[in-house]
Amino acid sequence: MKRILFFASLILLTASIAMTVPAALFNWRSATHDFGRIAQGKPVTAEYTFTNTGELPLVINSAKGSCGCTGVDYPKGAVLPGQTGKIKATFNAAALGAFNKTVLVESNAEGGSQTLYLKGEVVKEAASAQ
After folding, report:
1. Quick check: 4 and 89 in contact, CB under 8 A?
2. Which one, of 117, 56, 110, 49, lies nearest residue 84 by Cα?
3. d(CA 58, CA 87)
4. pTM of this prediction?
5. What CATH superfamily classification does 22-128 receive?
6. Which residues, if any, are the signal sequence (predicted)?
7. How confident is the model over 90-96, as a mean pLDDT?
8. Domain ranges in the chain?
């Protein structure tokens, strides 16, 4: 019986320690950007603003677009707790039609990698773009 109580106490202690481990944490203003209708041949840029609401500095290791048509710029230095940062994704609007693209962000933040989304429709005439 003492053994069972000892192991149960050990499991509870381990669980409580695991829950209090400090980490970096993304808090996105919005993880999706809808461009609506955009003109063909005119690259467009979405900005994704985040705050590090964790207790450790947040370091982005990489941020990559889902295709060669999406370039990504991200903070290369650490984002301290309470600070904000921006990731910019530029989509080259070459092909006509609807598009759905993603940006995969890999960092030391809790929860592993994060996915950002951009979508819209490329139209031929600039006059119909918003």
Report:
1. no
2. 49
3. 13
4. 0.78
5. Immunoglobulins (2.60.40.10)
6. 1-23
7. 93
8. 22-128
